[in-house]
Amino acid sequence: MTSPQFDWKTRLGVRFTVNGTENRAYATQSFIPQFGSSAEPLHTVERTHVGMVSTPHNLTFTLSVMAIGPAVADLTALAFRGDPFELVMLEQDGNDWSYATVVMKQCYITSAAPGAATISGAPVATFSGFSLEAEVTDKNSATTKTPRNTPL
């Protein structure tokens, strides 16, 4: 069995929204959204596997951006203030990607590394954090959302 050959011609972009204002992270090196949860079977004295117990979704991200333009300063300010924001990964050019968008809502930055100065090239700042909810939209405009986690 052979797998089809694909010619990736799409450029993905990242934008972040703060208080309704959209900002593009034009020099994004990488954006890694991660979604996870754990579940285990529930047993009783009479029977096994009568149900399941799950934990809330774990929604985290790592975003690396070249320190050129205002995006890195804006993201650093968000980290310092602890303000929530929205991260969106979308097709910037092309249409090869499986999704229309991946959206992480109510994001908080927990770690910011502004990057080291180098002799050549721009430094790369890396931001890590978590999200309270997320949604993915496919090419057919079908959207799937995670259950909303609310802070205490």
Structure overview:
This protein has one helix at residues 71-81, and strands at 11-18, 21-24, 28-36, 39-42, 51-54, 58-66, 85-93, 99-113, 124-138, 143-145. It has 152 residues and is mainly beta. Strand 7 and strand 8 form a beta hairpin. 7% of the residues lie in helices and 53% in strands. It has a single domain, classed as Roll (Pnp Oxidase, Chain A). The strands form two sheets. Strands 1, 2, 3, 6, 7, 8, 9 and 10 form an eight-stranded antiparallel β-sheet that branches. The chain has a two-stranded antiparallel sheet with strand order 4-5. The radius of gyration is 19 Å and the shape is globular.
Reading the helices and strands in chain order gives EEEEEEHEEEE
- Alpha-beta content class: mainly beta
- Spell out the CATH superfamily: Hcp1-like
Ends distance: 52 Å
So how many helices? 1
**Integer count of domains:** 1
Biggest sheet features:
8 strands, antiparallel
Summarize, please.
The chain is built from 1 helix and 10 strands, in the order ββββββαββββ. With 152 residues, the chain is mainly β.
From the structure above, extract its key features.
Pnp Oxidase, Chain A; two-stranded antiparallel ribbon; mainly beta; 7% helix; 152 residues; 1 helix; 8-stranded antiparallel sheet
